[in-house]
Amino acid sequence: MNNIMLIPFSPPRIDDKIIAEVSEALRSGWITTGPRTKKFEQKIAQYVNVPRVVCLNSGSAGLELALRWYGVQEGDEVIVPAYTYCATANVVVHCGVKPVMVDVREDFNIDVDQIKAAITDKTKAIIPVDIAGYPCDYDEINRIVNDPEMKSKFQAHTPEQKKLGRILVLSDAAHSIGAEYKQKKTGSLCDLTVFSFHAVKNLTTAEGGAICIALPEPFDTDEIYSELVTKSLHGQTKDALAKTKPGNWRYDVVEPGYKCNMTDILASIGLVELERYEQDMLVKRKEIFDSYSSVFSQYDLFEVPEYESENKKSSYHVYPLRIKGITEEQRDLLIQKIAEQGVGVNVHFIPLPMLTAYKSRGYRIEDFPVSYDLYSREISLPVYYDLTPEMINIVIQTILSLQGDIKDFLNKN
Ligand SMILES: *Cc1c(COP(=O)(O)O)cnc(C)c1O
C-alpha cells in the first residue's frame, strides 16, 4: 500500500498564533490561575450570554463541582443518558449517588419522555448531554422539572436545593459550545452548563472545562461564582494571585474543597481559540458536515445524522454516520478496513451499560435498545480545522469503497 495519505481522526489546531500566546503567558511571570483565566471566563460568558462562567482544569471537574455544590449525596438519584461518555456518570458515582440511566432518541440525545418516567422522590438532578454537538430539547426538560407535580415530589435537603425547590438541570455540553437552541447558545439554556476544552473537543485548552451559571432568581450569580471558585481551590478564601499582594498573606479555608482550577497557560490557548471560534472554526466544521451529508444522503446504505432543524443548530463536533442493517461485529470489520486505508475513524460512544464499571453495577444494555442500535451501526468520521477538501474526499471515497462489503453483510443478515 503505497502513497497512502494518513488522515488522523481529530488533531487540535495548533499554529503560530497559539504558540505565541502560550509563550507570552509563560514569559508574563504568572502561569497559574490569574488574569488570562479571568479574561477567558468573561469572554465565554459574553459569547454564550450568561452572567458568569467559572473555568476549571476539566469538564469532568465542572460536572462534579456542580453536583457537589448542589449537595447531592448517598440515597439520591441523578438521571443520565445511557449513551454518553463515561464522565457524565462517573462524576455521579464519585458523589456516592446512583446514576439512573435512560435511553436516547434517534438524534442520539436523551429521550425526554423517559426522563419523566425515571423521576422519583430521590431525583436531585438531570444531566442531559448534547451528543455530537446537537442540543437536547431544553424547553421540554425545563418544563418537566418546573411541572408542579414534579416539584411536589422533590425533597430538598440542602440550602441550595431548598432555594431552587426542584430538580437541577445540569447540561453536559462537552461537545456543544457554540451550538444553538431556539437562537440561544448552549450555556444559557438551563441552570448550569459544563463545557469541556479537552484536546479533541471543538474548542481546546489541551485540558480544561467551564461551568456556565444561569440559575434563576433568587440565586445571586456573583455569589455562586465565588462559591464555585473557592470550591475549586481547596476552599481557600484567597487565590495565589491575591496572596501575592504585599501584606496580603492571611487567608482562611472555609471548607475542605477540591483542586481543579484552570491555569493561565491553558487559558491563553482558549483565548485564541474562542476569538476565532464562531467565524472560523464553526464555519469550517459545518462545511465538513455538509460535504459528508451531501454525498452519503444519496445512498440507501447510509443514515446521515441530524445536525440542523427549525430550533437547533449543532456545533458540528462529531459526525456520526450510521450504516443501515449491519451488526456490531460487521461495523467493527468495516472500521478495520477503513483503518487499513489510513483513515482515522472512531465510535461515539460505547453505551455505559456495556462498560465493565457499569455492567458490574447491574446495568444491562438490553434495557437501552435505542442506545445499542445507534452504537452498533455508528462510525464517527474525521472533523477538524485542518481537514482539507482533498482529505474529505479521501474519507468519502474510503467509505464508499465499502459498499460491496456492506451489501455482502446485508445479504447474510
Ligand atoms: C469529553 C467529555 C466529558 C469530559 O470532559 P473532560 O474535559 O475530558 O473532563 C464529559 N462528557 C462528555 C460527553 C465528553 O465527551
- How would you spell out the order of helices and strands? HHEHEHEHEHHHEEEEEHHHHEEEHHHEHH
Helical/strand content category: alpha/beta
Extract low-pLDDT stretches.
none
Distinct compounds present: pyridoxal-5'-phosphate
Give the overall shape, derived from the CA principal axes: globular
In terms of DSSP E residues, the strand content is 5-15%
Give me the Rg, rounded. 22 Å
Main beta sheet, described?
A: 7 strands, mixed
The percent of residues in helical segments reads: 40-55%
Topology:
Layout: H1 16-27, H2 35-48, E1 52-56, H3 59-70, E2 77-81, H4 87-94, E3 98-102, H5 112-118, E4 123-126, H6 138-146, H7 148-153, H8 159-164, E5 168-172, E6 180-181, E7 184-185, E8 192-196, E9 209-213, H9 221-231, H10 240-243, H11 264-275, H12 277-296, E10 302-303, E11 312-313, E12 319-323, H13 328-340, H14 356-359, H15 369-376, E13 378-381, H16 389-400, H17 403-412
Parallel strand pairs: 2-3, 2-4, 4-5, 5-8
Antiparallel strand pairs: 1-9, 6-7, 6-11, 8-9, 10-12, 12-13
Helix pairs in contact: 1-11, 2-11, 3-4, 12-16
Structure description:
With 413 residues, the chain is an alpha/beta fold. The protein is built from 17 helices and 13 strands. Strands 1-9-8-5-4-2-3 form a 7-stranded mixed sheet, sandwiched between helices. A 3-stranded antiparallel sheet has the order 7-6-11, with no helix packed on it. β2 (77-81), α4 and β3 (98-102) form a beta-alpha-beta unit. It is globular, with a radius of gyration of 22 Å. The model has no long low-confidence stretch (mean pLDDT 97). The structure holds pyridoxal-5'-phosphate. Residues 58-60, 84-85, 87-88, 129, 172, 174-175, 196, 198, 209 line the site of pyridoxal-5'-phosphate (PLP).
